[in-house]
DNA sequence: CTTTTTGAACTGACTGGTCAGTGCAAAAAC
DNA sequence: GTTTTTGCACTGACCAGTCAGTTCAAAAAG
């Protein structure tokens, strides 16, 4: 395990708070960071973190290399914040789906189904991010390991919460293993969606959703 | 300025035949390749392909760097053959489970269940390989992409075959989407097992298997 | 049985190239 | 006036792949 002598240069984030806003309301800096995220996510999804160079990221983002280091302390920090950002979006989306189902007074099975759909929508929108997330999730000995752990848990916790509520109100068997079942559900959606994107992208989201719903509700065996 | 000893015989590596066998019956070469696979699989699972150096692999295998290149044309070729080797084991194991269930005249649901167990056994035995496989599967633009595609298809085809047979004999609904359902099942097992290994390795395989069986058979909703 | 030869397998110092990160002055944006 | 971006030269650690040379067990020769 070797670590390059970083000798870190202090990123000048000392500046006063959010500076002026552009017409859109976002700071200029924020817009640059966004462009860098977008460039990094596709490149890293395709090639992996180590095989992707900072020069490539800068070029794809249409920005000078120095800008990358003006905005992020290092390549790994850029990646780490990208992970945080992406999983944050997913978690918010899952939570939203679950709450919506709740507010509409539907059952926990419906909530689960809504979350499956939310997951599919997310993956359809950010396939590269998903790919990269899966590739990194079970790695050990990487700098961003602990960060990843935390955000993963936030996302999975949403699913576990719905399962637990369902057990509590009798909708689900109290013999289910919440943690394992949550992982299995996430895996089901993740892998099915990634396969969908990779091998039959022409299919509709509804189609994929229907197949997963059927599996979830045990309507696989049995006729018709 | 190092001066190398002159005076030497030319190696002339023209030979092609498998040389003598050691006591075990395996050639020495085969044993070395096996050691290199084992070293490479853990390192690459932990750090990824690009972040793993050939020097590390050689060191972990207790072999000189030159030996790696004596046995494999390049780092990627080593990795590619490792993938082929590993997925080959998995496919054989799945096929075996399916055929055993068939021979014993059990239904396709049981065959599926047996394959889930076979998958879990495989992952318990080769967690690093599984991890590395998942990390690489959906990447694009990588040298070994096509190889991976082929072996993946071989493995998934086994699951798809059982599903198709089940639809044919009426055990499964003819409305299921074979391809998607197979992917979802694989994902369910993969992710649940990886989570099991990573976050609660103390649990037994039977335990995990039971949780997945329950999910498969739709015994999640409904009480008891 | 003993000595010599053979060559596949292995070794590790070395090379040529790559890439993260630096430094900084000038320009642009705000 | 301040913040952010640019452009580009520079450094040095790092690493895939090479190759001259060594090892050793088994085959051939004596």
UniProtKB/TrEMBL annotation, chains A, B:
<dbReference type="Pfam" id="PF00440">
    <property type="entry name" value="TetR_N"/>
</dbReference>
<protein>
    <submittedName>
        <fullName>TetR family transcriptional regulator</fullName>
    </submittedName>
</protein>
<dbReference type="InterPro" id="IPR036271">
    <property type="entry name" value="Tet_transcr_reg_TetR-rel_C_sf"/>
</dbReference>
<dbReference type="InterPro" id="IPR001647">
    <property type="entry name" value="HTH_TetR"/>
</dbReference>
<dbReference type="GO" id="GO:0003700">
    <property type="term" value="F:DNA-binding transcription factor activity"/>
</dbReference>
<feature type="DNA-binding region" description="H-T-H motif">
    <location>
        <begin position="53"/>
        <end position="72"/>
    </location>
</feature>
<dbReference type="InterPro" id="IPR009057">
    <property type="entry name" value="Homeodomain-like_sf"/>
</dbReference>
<dbReference type="Pfam" id="PF17932">
    <property type="entry name" value="TetR_C_24"/>
</dbReference>
<dbReference type="GO" id="GO:0000976">
    <property type="term" value="F:transcription cis-regulatory region binding"/>
</dbReference>
<keyword id="KW-0804">Transcription</keyword>
<dbReference type="InterPro" id="IPR041490">
    <property type="entry name" value="KstR2_TetR_C"/>
</dbReference>
<dbReference type="InterPro" id="IPR050109">
    <property type="entry name" value="HTH-type_TetR-like_transc_reg"/>
</dbReference>
<keyword id="KW-0805">Transcription regulation</keyword>
<feature type="domain" description="HTH tetR-type">
    <location>
        <begin position="30"/>
        <end position="90"/>
    </location>
</feature>
<keyword id="KW-0238">DNA-binding</keyword>
């Amino acid at each position: 395990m070797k670590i390059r002598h970083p000798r870190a240069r202090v990123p000048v984030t000392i500046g006063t708070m959010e500076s002026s806003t552009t017409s859109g309301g976002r700071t200029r800096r924020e817009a640059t960071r966004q462009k860098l995220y977008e460039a990094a996510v596709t490149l890293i999804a395709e090639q992996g973190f180590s095989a992707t160079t900072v020069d490539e990221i800068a070029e794809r983002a249409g920005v000078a290399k120095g800008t990358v280091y003006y905005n992020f302390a290092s390549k790994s920090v850029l990646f780490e914040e990208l992970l945080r950002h992406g999983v944050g979006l997913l978690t918010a989306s899952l939570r939203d789906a679950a709450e919506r189902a709740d507010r509409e007074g539907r059952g926990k099975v419906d909530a689960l189904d809504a979350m499956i759909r939310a997951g599919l929508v997310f993956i359809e929108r950010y396939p590269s991010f998903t790919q990269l997330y899966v590739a990194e999730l079970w790695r050990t000995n990487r700098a961003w390991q602990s960060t990843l752990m935390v955000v993963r848990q936030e996302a999975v916790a949403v699913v576990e919460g719905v399962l637990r509520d369902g057990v509590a109100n009798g909708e689900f068997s109290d013999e289910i293993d919440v943690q394992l079942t949550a992982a299995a559900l996430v895996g089901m959606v993740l892998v099915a969606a990634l396969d969908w994107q990779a091998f039959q992208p022409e299919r509709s989201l509804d189609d994929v959703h229907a197949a997963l719903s059927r599996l979830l509700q045990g309507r696989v065996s049995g006729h018709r």
